[in-house]
Amino acid sequence: MRQNVLELPLMRFPCRIVAALAPAGAFAAAGVLTAAAATTTATAVLATPGWAGAATLAATHAATHAAKEAARSAAAASAKGSGPVDVLYAGSLVTFVQTSLDAAFHQATGYSVTGIPGGSTGLASEIKGGVHVADVFISAAAKSNAALEGAANGNWVTWYATFATSPLLIGYESSSKFATTLEKKPWWKVVTQPGFQMGRTNPATDPKGVLAVKAVDETATKEHDRALRTVVASTANIFPEQTMVGRLQAGQLDAGFFYGVEASAAKLPTVPLKSVNLSAGYTVTVVANAPHPAAAAAFVKFLLSAKGKALLEKNGMAALAKPKVSGKRAAVPSTLKKVLG
User: Which of 10, 31, 55, 87 yields a CA-CA distance of 20 to 30 A from 202?
Assistant: First the structure.
């Protein structure tokens, strides 16, 4: 028969257990035993005078080791949160949030985004009117926060940080009969052609709608093209921001005004405005009386982290190297002061 020797760890005196075991290699490395080997070993050791205490110590050590490993695993799991973070965000980010940001944020923190997209100006009005309760508000224009600042506006927002920009572009449907023309001629000479369906958002509820009107007006002036202003003269081509991509892809529109982030996420072909340079300036803030403050702070931290910035850049946005804080810097939660600088 073959003898196997186990050196018992963590003992203040030399101790060797010698057990005669039928199966070879019954003792595993570092004192870890299979169930069958443990039974055989215990029988052999306890039958040996003077070694019952040593066997007990070995068993205690194994149990302690297992308990420590379990504690480490539990601590790692508890480091993540759970539950929702209620985010009201610019409709131009709907595809980005739903297909990229939410999954990455959940994997990193354990929290999940419960989001409502829409025109930034309209969302601000809904927060102010109590229509929606929010933890975080993401706007496509800094001005949208003004409607929530100050006692007269409920002090819903006391600070906000501009974190990224995305250019205003003409996005079009590749199957449109005007697609080839848009690729070859200046956009302002194409969108006024008979039958062309050009979509835009409402200037009253969405900053992009304001920029679209500005782009048309400035281009019409620079290019001396009065007919171009007819594109924004009618309200028949105004649609909710979060539905624009879907309408374009369904063939209801030939083209529309989109931010780069929308076009990138939906893989839309685009043409630049060229004669004008306009863009969204995305801001983020934690709303006053946020029902989930810990989740809200975790969301802002992730959005502004290296991983968050990489996602922004990958999806058609230019992340600012350092967020620009506006409003009352002293009101920034202590948990966010480091990430906001």
Answer: 87
Cα dihedral 291/293/294/295 (nearest 10): 60
Contact 166, 259 (CB under 8 A): yes
Which residue's structure tokens are 């982030």? 261
Can you tell me the mean pLDDT for 52-69?
A: 53
CA distances from 273 to 39, 88, 178, 195, 212 (A): 79, 29, 17, 21, 10
Which residues, other chains included, contact 237 with Cβ-Cβ below 8 Å and sequence gap of 6+? Answer: 197, 198, 199, 200, 231
Strand 255-259 to 198-199 pairing = parallel
Please, are residues 238 and 212 in contact by the beta-carbon 8 Å criterion? no
Residues linked to residue 145 through DSSP beta bridges, in sequence order: none
Whole-prediction pTM value?
Answer: 0.75
268/108 Cα distance (integer angstroms): 29
Q: Are 91 and 206 in contact (CB under 8 A)?
A: yes
Q: What is the rounded distance in angstroms from the CA atom of residue 249 to the CA atom of residue 254?
A: 9
Nearest to 203 by CA among 256, 254, 239: 239
Q: Which pLDDT tens digit goes with each residue over 125-166?
A: 999 999 999 999 999 999 999 999 999 999 999 999 999 999
